[in-house]
Write a structure and sequence with these properties.
The complex is a heterodimer of chains A (about 170) and B (about 750). Chain A has about 170 residues and is of the alpha+beta class. In chain A, about 40% of the residues lie in helices and about 15% in strands. In chain A, strands 2-1-5-3-4 form a five-stranded mixed β-sheet. Chain B is of the alpha+beta class. Among the domains of chain B are: about 210 residues, Aldehyde Oxidoreductase, domain 4 (2-Layer Sandwich), CATH 3.30.365; about 140 residues, Aldehyde oxidase/xanthine dehydrogenase, molybdopterin binding domain (Aldehyde Oxidoreductase, domain 4, 2-Layer Sandwich), CATH 3.30.365.10. Chain B has 21 helices and 32 strands. In chain B, helix 7 crosses helix 8 and helix 11 runs parallel beside helix 20. Classes of the chains: A alpha+beta (about 170), B alpha+beta (about 750).
Amino acid sequence: MESVEYSKKTNEKEVELTFDLNGETTKLIVPAVYRLVDILRKDLQLTGTKISCEIGRCGACSVLLTGQVVNSCLVMAYQLKNSKVETIEYISKNSLHPIQQAFLEEGALQCGYCTPGMIVALTDLLGYNADPTDEEVLEHLSGNLCRCTGYTGILRAVRRYKTIYTNKG
Amino acid sequence: MELKRENFGDKWRVRPDGYDKVTGSLKYLTDYTFPNMLYGKVLRSSFPHAKIRSISTYEAEQLDGVKAVITYKDVPGMNRFGLIFPDQPVFCEDVVRYVGDAVAAVAATSEEIAEKALSLIHVDYEPLEVMDSPEKSLSSSSIPLHPAGNILHRASYKSSEQVLKELQNCPYVVEDTYETPRQMHGYMETEGGVVVPEEGGKITVYAATQHGFKDRMQLARILSIPESLIRVISSPIGGSFGGKDELNIQPYAALLAIKTKQPVKLHNKRSESVRAGIKRHPMKIKMITGANQEGKLVGHYVRIVADTGAYATLGPAVLDFAVEHATGPYIFPHVDVEGVSVFTNNGIAGEYRGFGGNQVTFALESQIERLAEQMEIDSIKFREMNLRDADDLGPLGQRIVKNDGAKSVLSMIKNSSVLTDSPKEHPHKITGKGIAITMHGGGLGFGRPDPSGARLSLTNDGKIEIAFGFEEFGQGLIASIEIMLMEALNCSKEDIKIVIGDTDLVPSSGSATASRSTNMIWNGIQKLKAPFMEKVLDLVADYTNTTRDLLYLGEKGIWRRGKRNQFVLSYRELANNANPSHVTFQTHFHFPTTPDAVIGGHYLYSFAAVAAEVEIDQLTGKVKVTRMDHAVAAGPVVNPLGYLGQIEGGAVMGLGFTLFEDSVMENGRYHTENFDSYLLPTIKDIPTETNVMVDESLMEGDIFGPRGVGEIGTVAIAPAITAAIHQACGIWVKKLPLSSEEILDALMDLSSPGNEQGVY
C-alpha cells in the first residue's frame, strides 16, 4: 500500500526492489533515485540511521551493505537489488554488542547523534579484526565525524573492548 | 588528581540516556513524524545585501501538493526575534542583510514538492553593496544596515588612563594583532523539528533549543498568541554548543502549522544550516602588552573588533565577555580594553562555547609567551610571577569568590608528562611543546536576569521526580542530575524520575548555557532536599508509628536505623497513602552574582591549563597535535565521565579552531557549505593520549558548589598549540586557523644559510 504513495511524491521512474533488510526479505516500490537513507528513515521509520551532511562525509548514516560499512546517503535505491542491508536497529536486536557496552562504560558518546554510525562502522571492523591496532581504528573511523567527544572516549571504548571482551572470548 | 575510572569509583557511571543512544532507539525531535504531517522549507535570500522589490508566490501556490506559502504578510504578531533585542526579521519585508535571511516558506505534502515550490517563488531583488568586513561597515562610505548604524555594541574597561604612557616606559613590550576564524558549531544534528497544532488553538513545538521558555516567549510574540498556548518540547538534542540557543526553524514550522492546521516538519539540510545558522565571532584583536625590568606585567592595551554579522542575537554579551576576559588570570596595574561589535552582511555571529573568551585568550596567551621570550625567561615562571592571588579582585575590578585556581592549574600542568617526556625522533618532522592557561566566568554576569528553578516531588506511582528547565544536548546533564540526586537523597537510580525539556512540565530554569546548569542543578537540589526529606519522614513516622529520628531515606524507600537497618515503607506505598501535592517542593533562585554593580561582571570563575605537543612535517608544513594534557580547577567533580567528556571534546573543538576550521566568506557568501570544505577534526587528527587533571577543592567559605565545565575545555587550546609550534619552528601564528604554507615558508627561512637553527 505504502509503495503506491511514492509515485505521487516525484515524477521519477520507480523500481521494484527486493532486498534483505535486517534479516527479513523486504519488497518495495520506490523511485530509482531514492537514497537508502530516505527509504530507511522516511518510509520504514528506521530512524536509528541518522542524517547530517548528505554528501558522504560524516558517516552519521552508516549502515552495513552486504557486510561492509557504507554511507546510506550515497546508496541509491536501484543499487539495493538483491543486497543485504543491516542497520543499527539490527545490531542490538537481541542484546548489546560488546562494543556498545564499551561505549557506555567509557563515555564514548555525548549527544549520541553520530553514535549509531560509529557503532555500525566499528562492528564492521571488529567483525573481521577483533584486535585492531590504534592505527587501524583511526583509519577505519576516519569517515565518521563526532563533534562532541573529541573521539578520545571512542578510542578508550575500543581499547576497553579489546582488553575485556576479547580476552573473555 | 587524574580524572580516570580508577579514581572515581561508583561515580564513574553509565549515563541514563546511553542505552538508547548506542542502540539508535532514541528519538530525536527531527526523527518524529505525525499523521498528516507536511514538510516545510524556507526560501533564503539570494543575496547577502539587497532590497526586495517584490515577492510573487502565485506560481508556487499552484503546484500540486503545496498547502501553504507564507511571507512577512502572514506573520500575525511581531515579525522579529532576537535573544537580547529583537532585530532579526522572521521574514524580510523590504531588505535582506545576509544569505540566510528568510524571505518565504512553504508547506507541502513531501520534501521534494516543498523544494520544488521554493524555486517557483519569484523574488525581485535590487542588490546593494555588500558590507563584507567590519572595516568596510565602519568606513565613511558604508551603508547603514540598521537604523542606528553599523555598530551593534561597544564595551570597555579601563583601570587607568596612562596605559600607553606606561607601556612606553616598559623595557619589554609586545605589540601585535591576532585574528580568529568564523568557527561553525558543527553539531551533527542540524536544526529541525515538528510543530503540531493541538486542540483549543494550542501548538506543540518539538524542536531543539537551549532554553525552552525563551523560545516560547519569542514564539508567542511572533504568533500573537498567549504563551500558555505554546508547549515547547526541546530535548534530546543532537549537539548545540551555543548554536541552538537562538530561534532557528521554530517560527516557520509554527506559522505553517497554524496556517495549514497540520503538523509541519522542518529539518535543515546542512547547507541551509551553514547559511542561516550562527557562528563564532571572527575577531581582530590588537594587543600591546608590557613588562618591567623585574618581569612584572605593567600595562595591557587591547582593541577588539568583532564581526557580528547581520543581526544582534547575543553579540553584545559576547563582546562584553571578551573585554572582561582580555586580561585573563593576570594582574596588570594598567589596563585599557575597548571592543566594538560591528554589523556586516557576513552571516550571523552569536553564542558559541567559550563566548568570546577563546578569541582573547589566544591573543593574550600569545602575548605572555612572547614577552617571556623577549625577557629570555621561562614562560611558566613568568606566569607565576604575574598570576592573580586567591583574593585579588576580578578582571573588571569587581569582587569575586576567592579562588586560587590559576596557580593550581599552572602547577598541575607544569608536571604534565607532555612537557617532561622527550619527544619521539622522526626524520622529516620537528616537534615542539607549549602551554596556555585561562580563567573563565560562569553564569551570565551582573545585571542580567540569571534565574533558575527546580521542583522535587513524589509522584503518584512512587517515583522521586526532579524537574528542571534545562536541556540535554549531549553534555550529560541528566547523568549529572541523577548522580547529584542519588547522593543527596541516598536513593537509587530506579527511584528517580528526571523531567527536563518540556515547558508544560518543568519549572523555568533559564538557559542551559554559560556553564551554569551543573551549578544551578546542585543549588536546586541543595535547597529542596531538606524540606522534601523532612516531609517524607514526617509522613512515614506518622503512618507507621515509628520514631521519626530513626528513619532515613534509602534505596527503594524509607528505612529504620538499628542494629540491623530495617526497610519500613516503599516510596510507592508512601505515594499510595500520601497526597502527592503535600510532597511537592519548588524553588526559584538566581545564579550568584558579585555584590559590585559591574554590568556583565562574573562572580564564579573556573581555571584551566593546557599542555600541547605538536609535530610539524618539514616537507608539507602540516601540523599534527600529538599530545595534549589538561588541568582544570572548577570545584568538585559531580559526574566524572561527563566532566572528562567536556574537556576532551572541548579540546578537539579548540584544535579544529586552531588548525582547520573557518567558514570562509567572500562578498558575504560562504565558500564552505558542507563538511567537504569546512573541515571538522576527524579521529585521525587527534592526540591519542590525553590526560585530564582536576583540582576539586573550594576555598574556605566558598559555598557555591561545583562549577560547570561545558566551555572551559575549548578556551586555552589554540595558544598552547601555537606556543608549541613556535618552539618547534620559531614562528608565531597570529591568524587562525593556521596556514601550512606560512609554516613552510618559515621553515624555509630557518633553513636558509646563516641560520644556526637550520633544518635541512
